[in-house]
């Protein structure tokens, strides 16, 4: 595969100015967008899955995933400051490695955003059901909140929340950002309250054994927990709607990621030290059961039927369940209420990010032009927003949260690695271009990001590993069957020839 049909950075910036979105987001709103995307399913729900995979070793999982994300975020900062246009990793790859690989990255971002939105909506459903049970004493039939894999028909609450968020995004970016800022405040207050109540009563004996599943379990948990950090790159997808993006985008990227990492570690401390502990649930033969499986579900039911409190890995509302276990029943219900109110902000961020990727690909001619239509009144890409919402709702209805998160991670890790590679190539091929944010020690940070993404990808479950190449192959079929012939770059012969040193098999 050769690097061909490279769209220059100047052409990308010119296109974004010619057919641009409304620049209405400031530094604060953009940071809130990043925090809103990061704090969500990973800490409110996937804490249970991390405990099942790694036990107390999930502390190291949070650190590992956060470090790799920070390396990737620094790479994003440099590119986002150079190219303040919509499209994120897709746009950056188009400018450096050409149309084919850009299309592949765009396809991977569908896994990150659309499937990620489905995962968050599915996790929101668990908190909502728990809240209704504890506050109203009403049990919602599991047939309508479980996926078919868990013995249900469909996750109906998840479908409803996605459709509501889709409607909000159609109304407008500014309105969505304002609503998001409120929801972010609720989440931050909830996590602060959790840490304040849980850490002082922490039992340090629950940290032993620290890594019951070894390095493999810790890495597997990091690969799942990675989903808790990925929201930060939605900041770069909003660059075209940001005031002074050269300054505000890097600031929002680093601020949102650093803020959330500190919170994650505090919450993990409280969870591990709680009366529930964080040791994995074992099968009768002593083996560790895989999260999200019927075998784990049945084992959890057996444990609870014997009079033992529900273990942390068995809970679908981890933080609320922990607070109830230490005697804070009403506060636990409030945490459940906060998660129920605030998790939709993550769904909002992910659908928002996906629509901007689709919008940019349609603007480039790789997808039908109708997807890039802007609503005459709301000035939003309403068609692609509706299409994304329907697709995310379908995923949330029929797949469990852990499976959706791992699928999302496979696409995200590929996209992050491609961004890091793009930064290195641009440093060689266009060293004189202005870089409002110049990443420090890039020849150390970018390789660490690439190797870290590869390590986490190989630590995913086998099915999730295979999803990415299968998804990519179907994407190439669509590209050659539709997009390549209609690409504006290819059709108008505006390709910038690649220097010989840049052209190689990849």
From TrEMBL:
PANTHER family: CATIONIC AMINO ACID TRANSPORTER 4, INNER MEMBRANE TRANSPORTER YGJI-RELATED
Main location per the UniProt record: membrane
Entry keywords, A to Z: Membrane, Transmembrane, Transmembrane helix, Transport
UniProt entry tagged with the keyword Cytoplasm: no
Transmembrane segments: 25-46, 58-77, 110-130, 150-170, 182-202, 214-239, 251-272, 334-353, 383-401, 407-426, 438-457, 463-482
Taxonomic lineage of the native organism: Bacteria, Pseudomonadati, Pseudomonadota, Alphaproteobacteria, Acetobacterales
Cytoplasm among keywords: no
Matches recorded under Gene3D superfamilies: Amino acid/polyamine transporter I (1.20.1740.10)
Top-rank lineage group of the source organism: Bacteria
Membrane topology: Multi-pass membrane protein
Subcellular location: Membrane
UniProt source species: Komagataeibacter oboediens
Protein name in UniProt: Amino acid permease
């Amino acid at each position: 595969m050769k690097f061909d049909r490279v769209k220059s950075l100047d052409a990308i910036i010119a296109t974004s100015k010619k057919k641009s979105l409304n620049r209405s987001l400031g530094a604060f709103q953009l940071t809130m967008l990043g925090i809103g995307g990061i704090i969500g399913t990973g800490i409110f729900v996937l804490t249970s899955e991390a405990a099942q995979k790694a036990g107390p070793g999930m502390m190291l999982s949070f650190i590992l995933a956060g470090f790799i994300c920070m390396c990737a975020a620094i790479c994003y900062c440099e590119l986002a400051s150079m190219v303040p246009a919509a499209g994120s990793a897709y746009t950056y790859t188009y400018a450096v490695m050409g149309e084919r690989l850009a299309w592949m990255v765009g396809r991977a971002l569908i896994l990150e955003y659309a499937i990620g939105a489905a995962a968050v909506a599915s996790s929101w459903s668990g908190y909502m059901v728990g809240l209704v049970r504890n506050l109203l004493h009403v049990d919602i039939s599991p047939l309508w909140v479980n996926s078919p894999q868990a013995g249900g028909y469909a996750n109906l609450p998840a479908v409803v929340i996605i459709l509501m968020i889709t409607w909000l995004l159609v109304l407008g970016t500014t309105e969505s950002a304002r609503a998001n800022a409120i929801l972010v405040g609720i989440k931050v207050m909830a996590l602060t309250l959790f840490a304040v109540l849980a850490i002082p009563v922490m039992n340090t004996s629950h940290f032993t054994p620290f890594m019951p599943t070894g390095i493999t379990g810790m890495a597997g948990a990091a690969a799942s927990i990675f989903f808790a950090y990925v929201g930060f790159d939605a900041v770069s997808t909003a660059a075209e709607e940001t005031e002074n993006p050269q300054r505000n985008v890097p600031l929002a990227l680093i601020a949102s990621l650093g803020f959330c990492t500190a919170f994650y570690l505090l919450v993990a401390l409280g969870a591990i030290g709680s009366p529930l502990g964080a040791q994995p649930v074992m099968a009768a033969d002593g083996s560790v059961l895989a999260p999200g499986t019927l075998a784990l579900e049945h084992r959890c039911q057996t444990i609870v039927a014997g009079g033992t409190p529900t273990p942390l890995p068995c809970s679908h509302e981890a933080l609320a369940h922990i607070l109830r276990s230490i005697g804070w029943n009403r506060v636990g219900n409030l945490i459940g209420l906060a998660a129920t109110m605030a998790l939709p902000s993550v769904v909002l961020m992910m659908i928002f990010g996906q629509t901007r990727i689709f919008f940019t690909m349609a603007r480039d001619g790789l997808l039908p032009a109708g997807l890039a239509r802007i609503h005459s009144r709301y000035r939003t890409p309403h068609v692609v927003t509706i299409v994304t919402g329907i697709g995310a709702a379908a995923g949330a209805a029929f797949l469990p949260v852990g499976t959706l998160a791992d699928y999302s991670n496979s696409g995200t890790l590929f996209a992050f690695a491609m961004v890091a590679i793009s930064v290195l190539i641009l440093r060689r091929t266009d060293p004189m271009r202005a870089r409002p944010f110049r990443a420090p020690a890039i020849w150390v940070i970018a390789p660490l990001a690439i190797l870290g993404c590869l390590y986490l990808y190989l630590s995913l479950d086998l099915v999730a590993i295979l999803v990415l190449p299968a998804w990519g192959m179907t994407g190439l079929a669509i590209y050659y069957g539709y997009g390549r012939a209609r690409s504006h770059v290819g059709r108008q012969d505006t390709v910038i020839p690649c220097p010989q040193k840049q052209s190689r098999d990849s």
